[in-house]
Write a structure and sequence with these properties.
Length: 575
């Protein structure tokens, strides 16, 4: 049977570019190093696009949480993205099937490469250059398969799992495989992949996976496997030997922390986004360790679906959806001198002349991916911006290390404190003395980490899944609704927040006349008044994870079409 493997799919992007030739059988496909490389680039392709990290897994699936809420301007219920955000998901939801299928398409492509690449004559008998490249390709395929399965598990729990191509599968109707079994296999695969792929500086700078990304991903999977998850019993549970996986995570992160010539923090938090991701550039410090390559005007809705709305030359319509809104409680959880606040939260829209117009507090959008940071600037009204999605950053390595070390030692070691404070000091750059005292006890340090990960990774699709693996999602949703109500009612500690803010119209940067933190005047000459805390209504508070149900909503239902097609799969978790 000939398996059609495309030499290069149209959306293998920017730095991952080869000329497409045609589609051929496996003998031809894996008959040369360049063709094998094309096959692996075809696996990367399944990360991107609307049904991948260009929209669904980056902008829709991770919300609502205690930081931000998803689309609010659609009718409810819609059996689509709004229901996803409100935890009102049915098996027929329009956002389920295509992303689910795309993940399995990526797994199938990876399985084909994993079977064929080590069997190539060139793998053992080729030139040194051929062998080195084929080993790298094999390691990339193993890593990509792990990422696809990880996304399946954290959204659907136990899923059917195959580690061989479909053509070799004796029965295509597979039952669900326990996630622990899948995780153990992936963690072992990633250990193998570590030895196969090069370090970042040993190869040309592009978006392909290198050793640091593999090690960081292995640490992430280990922490998730050692964390809580919703089981088919209907309970949130963690493995009895969870500490074994925390040790894997700690060790992987520690090794990465010794390789600062490969990966370290960018000195500027804003630059990670404005000067690298939003400018279509590779981060020079290697902080963005693994990113999904996107094609401009094809693959990514980042900065269009989320972020402040905008205009482009020659178009009179206000563009962008502004669909991911910052919960005011999250905005006010930041210290006023934390530089991450004004990167993560964007309280303005753009005017046609590129000046900034302040929005009401409830219309503040996520800000790490924003149109006015895109370089070169957008020139058409097309929704696909081409901004890459960051899967793992080095700051995550530091905080994963601190978390695992704290758990294993029943409190933070000095190494754990140093790693935690490195992230925090970068956030408070210029005001490092305001980072406060790092807790020395296990529980206090863990609570500080829970908060710090929120400050660091807001809007990056991480928070909801962190809260699930800590079994804190229900608690945090209840807490954020309670504090939201306090802001609306002007209760302590929010009783001095302004009801109104005043901004200078026509200014190229958002210019305010009064403080985010002090009561507002009634008027300011030359400035425009906007409702701030006064904009909050009961409906906005009700919106937050409106139909979330503990021990059910942590996972999604299997798409109904998949259930209909495979009689061996059943719904779980009360769906």
């Amino acid at each position: 049977m000939l398996v059609a493997v495309t030499l290069l799919f149209a959306a293998c992007k920017k730095y991952l570019t080869l000329e497409p030739q045609s589609a051929f059988g496996e003998d031809y496909m894996f008959g040369s190093t360049i063709n094998a490389r094309s096959a692996v680039l075809g696996i990367y392709d399944q990360l991107a696009g609307d049904q991948g990290y260009g929209s669904r897994f980056s902008l829709i699936y991770p919300y609502d949480n205690d930081e931000m809420i998803g689309v609010t301007n659609a009718s409810a219920p819609d059996n689509s993205s709004r229901d996803m955000a409100r935890y009102n998901v049915q098996p027929t939801n329009a956002q389920l099937l295509a992303p689910f299928n795309q993940l399995y398409a990526g797994i199938e492509r990876a399985n084909i490469c994993i079977r064929n690449i080590p069997a190539m004559g060139l793998y053992k008998n080729g030139t040194a250059a051929d062998q080195k490249e084929l080993q790298r390709l094999y390691g990339e395929a193993l890593t990509l398969r792990a990422q696809f399965y990880f996304e399946l598990i954290r959204n659907w729990g136990d899923v059917p799992a195959s580690f061989i191509p479909s053509i070799d599968q004796p029965d295509l109707f597979l039952e669900k495989t326990d996630r622990d079994v899948i995780y153990d296999s992936l963690i072992a695969d990633l250990k193998k992949a570590e030895e196969l792929v090069p370090w970042r500086t040993e190869v040309s700078s592009d978006e392909r996976i290198t050793k640091g990304a593999v090690k960081a991903l292995r640490a992430r999977l280990a922490l998730f496997n050692g964390g809580y998850s919703l089981r088919r019993s209907g309970n949130m549970e963690r493995r009895g030997n969870y500490a074994d996986y925390y040790k894997i995570a700690r060790d992987e992160c520690y090794e990465l922390m010794q390789k600062r010539d490969q990966h370290t923090l960018n000195p500027s938090f804003q630059s990670v986004f404005k000067d690298a991701l939003d400018a279509y550039k590779i981060d020079p410090y290697g902080e963005v360790m693994f990113e999904v390559a996107m094609a401009r005007e094809v693959d990514s809705k980042l900065g269009y679906y989320d972020g402040p709305r905008f205009y482009v030359p020659g178009n009179t319509a206000l563009l962008g959806n502004g669909s991911i809104r910052v919960i005011p409680v999250y905005f006010y959880s930041f210290d006023s001198t934390d530089t991450r606040r004004d990167v993560t939260c964007a309280p303005y829209y753009n005017n046609a002349d590129n000046s900034k117009a302040l929005q009401t507090l409830v219309n503040m959008t996520s800000g790490k991916f924003r149109s006015d940071w895109i370089t070169p600037a957008l020139t058409s009204a097309i929704q696909a911006t081409g901004i890459n999605w960051p899967v793992i950053r080095f700051s995550d390595v530091l905080l994963m290390f601190a978390e695992a070390d704290n758990e294993l030692n029943n409190g933070p070691t000095e190494d754990a404190k140093t790693a935690f404070e490195e992230v925090r000091k970068r956030g408070f750059k210029g005001n490092e003395s305001r980072i406060g005292t790092t807790p020395g006890d296990k529980e206090g340090f863990f609570k500080a980490l829970v908060n710090e990960r929120s400050f660091e990774f807001g809007g990056e699709g991480i928070r909801k899944y962190d809260l699930i693996r800590w079994n804190l999602l229900a608690e945090k949703i209840t807490s954020v609704r309670s504090n939201y109500t306090k802001i609306m009612n002007r209760e302590a500690p929010y009783n001095n927040l302004p009801q109104y803010l005043f901004f200078l119209p026509g200014a190229p940067q958002l210019t305010l006349a009064n403080s985010f933190y002090k009561p507002s005047p009634t008027a300011v000459t030359g400035y425009t008044r906007v409702n701030w805390t006064r904009a909050i209504t009961e409906a906005w508070i009700t919106n937050v994870a409106q139909l979330y149900r503990p021990n059910r909503s942590e996972l999604l239902p299997i798409p109904q079409a998949v259930i209909d097609a495979n009689p061996k799969i059943k719904q779980d978790y009360g769906y």
